[in-house]
Amino acid sequence: xxxxxxxxxxxxxxxxxxxxxxxxxxxxxxxxxxxxxxxxxxxxxxxxxxxxxxxxxxxxxxxxxxxxxxxxxxxxxxxxxxxxxxxxxxxxxxxxxxxxxxxxxxxxxxxxxxxxxxxxxxxxxxxxxxxxxxxxxxxxxxxxxxxxxxxxxxxxxxxxxxxxxxxxxxxxxxxxxxxxxxxxxxxxxxxxxxxxxxxxxxxxxxxxxxxxxxxxxxxxxxxxxxxxxxxxxxxxxxxxxxxxxxxxxxx
Length: 251
Ligand SMILES: NC(=O)c1ccc[n+]([C@@H]2O[C@H](COP(=O)([O-])OP(=O)(O)OC[C@H]3O[C@@H](n4cnc5c(N)ncnc54)[C@H](OP(=O)(O)O)[C@@H]3O)[C@@H](O)[C@H]2O)c1
Description:
The chain is an alpha/beta fold and 251 residues long. The protein has helices at residues 15-26, 38-49, 67-81, 105-133, 154-174, 195-198, 201-209, 219-230, and strands spanning 6-9, 30-35, 56-61, 86-89, 136-141, 179-186, 241-244. Helix 1 (15-26) links the parallel strand 1 and strand 2 (30-35). The relative contact order is 0.15. NADP nicotinamide-adenine-dinucleotide phosphate is lined by residues 10-17, 34-37, 40, 62-65, 90-93, 114, 141, 143, 186, 188-189, 191-194.
C-alpha cells in the first residue's frame, strides 16, 4: 500500500509516533523518524527495523521547535528518492498542565513553538514538494482536548485546536494540487505523555467508567487510522478531524 513512498513522522521514538512509523513500514514505506534524544531514537529505529517489515525506519535527531533541525530532517528525507509522500506532525509537549492563571509568556511561546509552529514549518517546507508531485498526505495529530476544553489544560487545548484549523485551511488550498490534509484527535492513549491519567488504577477506572469503549486506547489504534489517511484508501477525505477516543466525547 505504501511501497516506494517516503514518510516523515515526528516524535517517533516511542508512543503514538513509533506505532505510526511501524504501520507505514509494514506497508512498505521508508519512514524518517525524529525525536530529540539520539539514544532513544536509535533504539526505536532498532525496534522498528527488527519487526521484519518491508519498509525501513531512518532516524534523524531533530527538535521540532528548531528551524535548522527541521530543515535538515526534510533535506535528508527528500534526498532518499526525491519524493515526500506523507508527513505526520505528531511530536508535541505539555509543559503547562495546571491552572490557567499560573502560566506566562515563556510557557505560551514554548507550547506554540513545539506544538503549532513545528507543524506549520514542516508543512510549508514539504507541501511544495507534494504539490509538484501532484500528491501527498499530511496528518496532524491533534487531541480531543482541541475540541473540548479540559480542566487545567489551556495552552495544550489551544495548540491542539489551532492544528485543526491549520488542517482545514491547508486542505482547502492544497486540495486542487492533489494534497490531502487531515487531523486525528485521539482520546486517552496509553503512552508516557498521558501516564498521569492511567498509571493510578483508581483514576484510570474512573476515567474508563465514563467512556463507551471501556478499554484504555493503545497507540496502534491511532496508527491504523493514520495509515488509512496516509494511503489511497482515503482518497476522497480531506480537511477532516477523525476522533479516535473510544466514544469519550459522547459522554
Ligand atoms: N497519549 C495520549 O493520551 C494523547 C491523547 C491525545 C493526543 N495525543 C497526541 O499524540 C501525539 C503523540 O503523543 P504520545 O502520547 O505518543 O507522546 P509520548 O509518548 O510522550 O511521545 C512523544 C514523542 O515525541 C518526541 N518529542 C517530544 N518533544 C519533541 C520535540 N520538541 N521535538 C522532537 N520530538 C519530540 C519524544 O521523543 P524525545 O523526548 O526524545 O524528543 C517522543 O518520541 C502528541 O501530539 C500528543 O499531543 C496523545
